[in-house]
Amino acid sequence: MLLINGKIITMTGKTYENGFVYADGSKISAVGDMHEIPGWLCESQEQEKQPVLDVDGAWVMPGLIDAHCHVGITEEKWGIAGDDCNEITLPLTPFLRAVDAVNPMDPAFHDAVSAGITSLMTGPGSSNIVGGQAVFLKVYGRCVNQMVVKAPAAMKVAFGENPKMNYGDKGKMPYSRMAIAGLLREELWKACCYKEKKDKGGINTGEEDFRMECWLPVLNKEIPLKAHVHRADDILTAISIAKEFNINITLDHCTEGHLVAGEIAESGFPVISGPGFAARSKIEVKNMNFKTAGILEKAGVKTAIMTDHPVSLVQYLPLCAGLCVKHGLSMEGGLKAVTINAAQICGVEERTGSLEEGKDADIAVFSGNPMEVFTRTLYTIIDGEIVYSFNKGVQKADNWI
């Protein structure tokens, strides 16, 4: 596919006011200015009758990314029958895999495609101290295994009210924030002991502990802890535990992050901020504000924006970023928060998040700035194929019932 005459916003620091993007199959092969487009490329497209898409000045960006949601796991329409987000029977369940519960028929995938979103991180909820393993997916397909970009992509952990409410009321640990931190430390300590023993050859093939094996990618810094934290003290506890065990962590929600922005910046850990379009439904989100992302940006914290779908609907991701810009986040920061920053924080920047040679041909074409409410998604392209157009809707509707 050859896409021409667009405002190409690569998210690498380069913008071509009138440029092109060429995808050879599922990968981007060339990006540049229309004045520099190779003659052979146009001739090849014409001779081989391959698609040429003239977008006539529209904004062309990498497909948007929702860095934290529950699409496909907490399904719309189906209520409890379609809710597989939380296993509220044990507070520590690292062996659960989100990929086993994702339903590609969830209509939220359709909504994501229609909004120019091409990929997302979905995973367990925050009822448990350790909820299980998140997965990073493309948003288009019938078979979940064909949609996977990275699995596992993170290990979900949660601090604060949710684990307290779900277990304390049942007379089980955790009843307090002390218990949340204590049980997580114990779990990580056991995992470290297991890793040390395995590294020294004390555990042979066939003797592995299924539960402890799940922690090795975390301890090896291949994936981060994905920490549900709202209150400032929970944010700092999460940072402290990550430093104690020398592991990576993402600070998700980070509702009171603006109150401890300096401490977060000093930690070096990134933030996934949001959801903005949510009610202040519990005490720990009383200070929720769209200004948080902007304050974190000014402090030097790498920040992405999330919807936490279905808390905020996935299709409103670019509008959430826009409201953060309205309240202090830079325009560039808003676009980065749903593209390259999100990709880097999710550990998939080698595949997506920017328009560069060699990356997946996941492209969104907008009538203007996607963070503005009247902007239309004109085309969504995933792996080099047009899967949505404004005039025709989703191109392969057989992917949804």
Explain what the structure shows.
There is one protein chain. By secondary structure, the chain is of the alpha/beta class. 28% of the residues lie in helices and 24% in strands. It has helices at 39-47, 107-114, 144-147, 161-168, 177-199, 210-213, 216-219, 232-244, 261-267, 292-299, 317-326, 331-337, 340-346; strands spanning 2-9, 15-24, 27-33, 52-54, 59-62, 64-69, 117-122, 130-138, 148-158, 225-229, 249-253, 271-273, 303-305, 363-366, 377-382, 385-389, 393-394. The strands form 2 sheets. Strands 1, 2, 3, 4, 5, 14, 15, 16 and 17 form a 9-stranded mixed sheet that branches. The radius of gyration is 21 Å and the shape is globular.
